[in-house]
Amino acid sequence: MTSLTELPALEIVPGYEGFAAIHPHGGAIGLLILSEMFGVTPAMRDAARDFARVGISTLVPNIFWRSPDPGVLRYEGQDRERAQNRADNLDSQTVCGDIELAIDAFMARVPTLRCIAALGHCIGGGFAVTALGRTRLAAAISYYGFGISKLGKALTQLEKPAQLPRSAARRPWRLCDQRRGACLYAQPLAGRTGHPGAGRGG
């Protein structure tokens, strides 16, 4: 099994951290996983490890770090309401700025990286696509795409590769690190993809 470097609290800027899983060789392609409204959950961390094992070093930044309620929340009960409340209060311009900070920090930590893509779940999916035109992200994958319909005309003006959900899907694309044999690729989604316990929501 590939021996990864795991950084449970990689500092992006003071107070802003993320979970990082780094391939031993670093790789040329990096990935930001933008979480759903529950934060940097075990499922998000496991996904980061899975990508890193196949050569794509991955960072899961805590996009809720500015919130009064910034921690990991459970999928059910009162935590779900808390998660929805903090998601409703996120500002896309601020989140895009924080994504740029995460790109800076991760490329400094993994100097082999030449480009970084984003994979977003639910509300993170909307932010991944929004940030594609506002940051140095090289590509974006949106699962569920919470809030993505609000982007309107901007969806037709994307100049970088994007995988969008359902009817907004674009053509397949691929980013490859030929030296390491690692590829990040996407194709249009036929429907929604879920994960255990998440139910519906951001």
Biggest sheet character: 7 strands, mixed
Q: Can you tell me the CATH architecture? A: 3-Layer(aba) Sandwich
Q: What is the domain total for the residues?
A: 1
Query: Which strand-content bin applies to the residues?
Result: 15-25%
CATH fold node name: Rossmann fold
Instruction: Using the coordinates above, name the CATH class.
Output: Alpha Beta
What is the average per-residue confidence, as pLDDT, rounded to a whole number? 83
Low-pLDDT segments:
187-201
Strands side by side in the biggest sheet: 1-2-4-3-5-6-7
CATH superfamily: Alpha/Beta hydrolase fold, catalytic domain
Radius of gyration: 16 Å
Helix-strand pattern, N to C? EEEHEHHEHEEEE
How many separate helices? 4
Gross geometry: globular
Structural class: alpha/beta
Short description:
With 202 residues, the chain is an alpha/beta fold. The chain has helices at residues 42-53, 78-88, 92-109, 123-132, and strands at residues 5-13, 16-22, 29-34, 58-61, 115-121, 140-143, 162-163, 173-177, 182-186.
What attributes characterize this protein structure?
single chain; 202 residues; alpha/beta; Rossmann fold; two-stranded antiparallel sheet; disordered C terminus
What does this 3D model show about the protein?
The chain has 202 residues and is an alpha/beta fold. The chain has a single domain, classed as Alpha/Beta hydrolase fold, catalytic domain (Rossmann fold, 3-Layer(aba) Sandwich), CATH 3.40.50.1820. Helices cover 25% and strands 24% of the residues. It is built from 4 helices and 9 strands. The protein has helices at residues 42-53, 78-88, 92-109, 123-132, and strands spanning 5-13, 16-22, 29-34, 58-61, 115-121, 140-143, 162-163, 173-177, 182-186. Strands 1-2-4-3-5-6-7 form a 7-stranded mixed β-sheet. A two-stranded antiparallel sheet has the order 8-9. Strand 8 (173-177) and strand 9 form a beta hairpin. The longest helix has 18 residues, at 92-109. The termini are far apart.
